[in-house]
Amino acid sequence: MSDQFIDKEHRFAKIVSEQTFEDGRELSVLNFGPTHPSTHGVFQNILLMDGERILDADTTIGYIHRAFEKIAENRTFYQITPLTDRLNYCSSPINNMCWWMTVEKALGVEVPKRAQYMRVIVMELARITDHLICNGILGVDLGAYSPFLYVMKYRELAYEIYEEICGARMTTNMGRIGGFERDWSEAAWRKLDEFLEGFPKAWNELETAYLRNRIFMDRTIGVGAISAEKAMNYGFTGPNLRATGIDYDIRIAQPYSSYDDFDFNIPVGSGGDTYDRFCVRCGEVKESIKIIRQARENLPQGSYHADVPDYYLPPKEKVYTSMEELINHFKIVMGEIPVPVAEVYHSVEAANGELGMYLITDGSRTPFRLHFRRPCFVYYQAFPELIKGGMFSDAVATLSSINVIAGELDA
Amino acid sequence: MALETTDIQNRIIEKFADRVSDFRMEYDILTFEAAPEIAKEVIRYMKEDEVLRFNFLTDLCGVHYPDNDKEFQFAVVYLLHNWIDNVRVRIKSYIDADKVEIATVSDIFASANWMERETYDFYGIVFTGHPNMKRILNDNHMVVFPMRKEYPMEDSGRSDKDDRFFGRTTNNYQPK
After folding, report:
1. What pLDDT, on a 0 to 100 scale, did the predictor assign at position A263?
2. Contact across the interface for B170 and A373, Cβ inside 8 Å
3. Per-residue confidence of chain B (176 residues) as pLDDT tens digits?
4. Does B155 fall in a domain?
5. Do A356 and B56 touch (CB under 8 A)?
């Protein structure tokens, strides 16, 4: 029996070889991942199974660990944004904005209201694209492919908006210290309007396909549930926490980037199961639409970036014609910006929960220490707890509904 | 009634006297230092005390300060959050480089389990009493603790990023 193990030292090996049942059935071990299509990323779960039922699970992570924190200690501030893109790559703009806000807090840069509103729009857009992937894929894993495709069309449109804003689609590398690299084009605003017009209808189609669907409800209600106390103890944040009934949202608790100007609700669930997580995300998407509409309508006049020549790259045409701008450009590109000695923590409500960045600077061109508080990493450790006692197919549904993104998990 | 930072400070000092020190505001977060022997007790007290109620461990990470004295070369940074009064507190605990050990808090907050493993993986800080103290992101066979400052990321022979060529020392910040 034990020859099925690659690692004979594994704690499950002993359990399998020693356990005997009267009816002659045997326990088995199932290797779920690291390249299983329904793990949606590279991570391994070793499951101890009794027939179809999961008795215990052991998770192995780190398959795409890229040492971001070490790299960040050797890169200038502008070179760190591309690293943040690759944390939660389903909603890179949120990570980018969190990074800029952390840096701005350390440098003491005030961002104009207009840029803050633009950030809110792009962050909420990113939240929508993240949630639509999560909820869509949950359906796909349960055997309903089409609704995912209805909304996928709008992710494409959202990516086109990113493209208009910053030139990139997925790993966006968007923004600058103090705001955006350029004002948004006509096309960006037009496409945003198109998105606001068409997306809610598509989203309703997805929601109607799943929400009161008997098969979907049977597959998700009571599956992968966690209590509020346990969720808090395990460090849950974001939709997964709110599904248990706790209304903790950093946009409300510690508003950043003018979130206190907007009127929106925080959807909460009660059971903390897969169905509640799905519903909370559905609710959040609608609230995000509401926030984008408000920001679009009340967009203040003003500049799209802060007036900080020490940190903000000058316009390219001036770099070629004026000495002052050339110097600034060179200094910023080489990372020669004045940095105070500081220790800051800034967190935003990312699509998966509290994304925090803990930055220690010592006055040099690179961070002395940069730590990413990645929501996935913290709550994924509760996964064995969530799936214990359930069926294998429920583990797949649970895994998609907690929305673990390998990039964020492994950093 | 909101929990004031002075109240937090007084309450913790009252309980732990001179073993906690250096209370200060680092931007928006109250920060203080606790000796590694009592860090766990401080956290337990802050969680269970009926006034402080720091019920959520947001973050836990390590820092390496190679230029500090040997007794203070490593630090473990805890970030606690009281969700009821919405206050954050950061606790720093400096550890001796000769005895890189601190008690685990994973029995107080389950979320600390992986965060402590990550810290061990990066810095080699051993959390005593941890149920599964092994590497998490890096390979088990790795022999170094990569986030320690003595391990350079790039070829140390590179001179194109040398500070001297830009006419500056490490700290060139001049407040305006």
Report:
1. 94
2. no
3. 478 888 899 999 999 888 888 899 988 899 999 999 999 999 999 999 988 889 999 999 999 999 989 889 999 999 999 999 999 999 999 999 999 999 999 999 999 999 999 999 999 999 999 999 999 999 888 888 999 988 877 666 666 666 666 655 555 455 55
4. no
5. no
Contact A363, B171 (CB under 8 A): yes
State whether A140 and A254 are in the same domain. Answer: yes
Q: Does A235 touch chain B (CB under 8 A)?
A: yes
The total number of structural domains in chain A stands at: 2
Asked whether residue B157 is domain-assigned, the answer is no
Q: Which amino acid is at A338?
A: P
Residue ranges of A 392-411 with Cβ closer than 8 A to chain B: 410-411
The CATH number linked to A78 is: 1.10.645.10
Q: Least CB-CB distance to B137: which of A65, A371, A379? A: A65
Distance from CA of B154 to the nearest CA of A (A): 9
Residues 37 to 76 of A: which have CB under 8 A from any B CB? 61-62, 65, 67, 69-71, 73-74
Q: Are strands B20-26 and B126-128 parallel, antiparallel or unpaired?
A: unpaired
- CATH code: domain of residue B65: 3.30.460.80
Task: Output the pTM of the full model.
Answer: 0.92
pLDDT of the residue at A358: 95
Please indicate, yes or no, whether residues A52 and A170 belong to a single structural domain of this protein.
no
Q: Using a CB-CB distance cutoff of 8 angstroms, which residues of chain A are in contact with residue B134?
A: none
Contact A69 B147 (CB under 8 A): yes
Question: Given this model, what pLDDT does residue A1 score?
Answer: 46
Give the residue numbers spanning the domain of B85.
5-149
Range of the domain at A42: 2-60
A362 touches chain B (CB under 8 A): yes
Domain count, chain B: 1
The answer to whether A345 faces chain B, any CB pair under 8 Å, is yes
Specify if B98 maps to a domain: yes
pLDDT tens readout for residues B86-121: 999 999 999 999 999 999 999 999 999 999 999 999
Tokens read off for A309 = 């020549």
Q: Answer yes or no: is B64 within a domain.
A: yes
pLDDT score for A226:
93
Q: What residue ranges of chain A have pLDDT lower than 50?
A: 1-2
Asked whether residue A313 falls in the same domain as residue A374, the answer is: yes
Tell whether A320 lies on the interface with B, counting CB pairs under 8 A: no
